[in-house]
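Sequence only, no structure available. Ideas?
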Amino acid sequence: MATLSVGAAVVGAGLHLPSIPVLVAGGLVAGAGQGMGFHAAPSRATASSPPTERGTAASSFFVICYLGISLPVLGLGAATEAWGLLVAGQVFAGAVVAIGATTLAGLPRHGTQPNRPDSGTPVGQLPRLVLPAPPGGPGGAGTTCLGVGWLAC
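Reply:
I predicted one. Tokens follow.
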């Protein structure tokens, strides 16, 4: 995340200077940061899913990622029409830096546990919610187990 933020800041500087080499260097650094961040994300997103639901979790992950990648670019296009390329590019770069810095500030430090009450659920695993169901329902004995947003026991 830090590499992506630094790259976005360099892109903003390249737009302001204006300098094609600085702009290209910032794009390369930001792209490398985005690639490093995205490298481990699919396995982290599916790790807490049961093996039979990992395809569903991966599909959902990629749909969310594609929306997260495409919607800001559409907004940047609209902002470019309204404000011009220089201002829109600098605002977009500043927003990426701000989001990256906020995300970094909220991440647990290496070797520490996240600051959350102990729920008895291991870090990275979603808790299971048990709701009453009619007798003889899924899971037997009148319980329905929900996990990862899907009906599962």
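Confidence is low (pLDDT under 50) at residues 115-119, 139-153.
Hope that gets you unstuck.
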